[in-house]
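Q: What does the assembled structure look like for these inputs?
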Amino acid sequence: MNHWPFVIASYAIVLLGTAIVIWGSYAAMRRAEAKAKKLSKRK
Amino acid sequence: MHAYANPTRFLSLARPLTLWFLILGLALITIGSAYGLFYAPADRLMGDSVRILYIHVPTVWLAMGGWTAIAIASIVQIAWRHPLAAVAARAVAVPGALFTALGLITGSIWARPTWGTWWVWDGRVTSVLVLFFLYLAYIALAFASSEKGGVSRVTAIFGIVGAINIPIINRSVVWWNSLHQPASITVGGSSIDSAFLWPLLVNVIGFSLLFGAIVLMRMRGILAETKVEARLKRMAAE
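A:
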């Protein structure tokens, strides 16, 4: 049995899942920090 | 410990650490995975499927480490009322659940060519699946009863009680007859050949740093949201 399709599938899933959680966390952080900065500038 | 209870002080440390953890984590994962995929030899028994373990082991390590962090943060929240402990516990939950799911999926893909089946209801696999459900329940509880960006006392107690599953996962291969191999790396040493061990260790460190960066990003996001909420409440009251 050729094991490489299993290896490639595993790495692809981990890469995709990790990229999604990094991007999601980064985008949420930037959005919240920008909102907080904008509000703190308002009097 | 309370020195970093002040969010401003915490953020002054978290901002540079987020970037460094992210860069170092991604660099180590790239090196470890490239070595594991293209330079490390195939295993005599497992063949090329051994390469899956270079990402499977770090994801399961983070699944268990994530819940351990939730339990410690919950104890700190309840015992010392540290305001950032609850934020940290909430920040760990989603990435912890994701890495548990990735550990289960990669384990299942590895099992097909190695054991000849996608799934077995043995002690190790089942206890990790239970951990995934615990994460889902914790996330539901944390979002349903959020307090000042953190989690409620009930959620914290659930985080501590759920930690009972961590030693069960760890000892499952010893307590029950299982297809899953016993621990290869223990406090006493490692039974893995260095050709397989190094890419594994590099990836474990890399994924741990990346997990740290993700948690810091989520903590910063929660703190900023809390600040916005407090500000809006003050503005509405004026």
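DSSP finds seven helices and four strands in chain B.
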